[in-house]
Specification:
Two copies of one chain form a homodimer. By secondary structure, the first copy, chain A, is mainly beta. Chain A has a single domain (6-98), classed as Jelly Rolls, CATH 2.60.120. Helices cover 4% and strands 47% of the residues of chain A. Chain A contains one helix and eight strands, in the order βαβββββββ. In chain A, strands 2, 3, 4, 5, 6, 7 and 8 form a seven-stranded antiparallel sheet that branches. The longest helix of chain A has 5 residues, at 6-10. Chain A starts with a strand and ends in a 21-residue tail after the last strand. The interface between A and B is medium-sized, with 32 and 32 residues. Strand 7 (73-77) of chain A pairs antiparallel with strand 1 (4-5) of chain B, so a sheet runs across the interface.
């Protein structure tokens, strides 16, 4: 059992939209990711998804509004809700979601990551 | 759907060892808690537990070692592992654990909270 130092893990990767697994508990993954630009619209039919902003500003576009999430704020996107993360500048986030969650949900795209690295 | 501003939630309570529910996803609770002093030794037979330190320093005593967790670091304590959180000064933490998790695990004490408030 070892603690995880988030800042050290964030130094280990630079690619955007490619979550890395940094912890697992109760069938859930704790992931770190860096976002920049616009992701694809998608939803997760069976999984709620949590975005905790560590650095930067994340805009979560929903079909009816946009929620701006700053450092030390989080948003839980319920299952079945279409959403699109947008980051004008680089943002670092921590994600909590079931181990089964695919990053692009029901929208297969070039951004889809079927296999995630653990770091 | 609304974002959660962690700093604002932390202002809403001051009692120690009394986790507050600030989010729920996939059967898991996101909780905020403030610790100060020594908790009781306990374990959770069926639940892994995650401690993310937001402010202060948390010492997690295990039977064979102590892990010191600083701000922006986290520790996952696996199910069945005896542990005791200790905070010499006030520490604020975010917890992730199944909705079924009892704060003192298998050790009933004055510190046991059977019902948690949502804030």
């Amino acid at each position: 059992m070892e603690k995880v130092v988030i800042a050290e893990k964030l130094k280990l990767f630079s690619e955007y939209w490619s979550p890395k697994i940094v912890g697992e508990l109760n069938g859930q993954h704790v992931k770190l990711a860096k976002f920049r630009g616009e992701f694809v619209w998608h939803k997760h039919d069976d999984e709620d998804e949590m975005f905790l902003v560590l650095e930067g500003v994340l805009k979560m576009e929903l079909r009816d509004k946009t929620i701006v999430i700053h450092k030390n704020e989080f948003l839980i996107v319920p299952k079945g809700t279409e959403h699109r993360p947008v980051a004008e500048n680089e943002v670092s986030v921590m994600l909590f979601e079931p181990a089964t969650t695919l990053n692009t949900g029901d929208t297969e795209s070039d951004l889809t990551k079927h296999v995630l690295d653990s770091i």
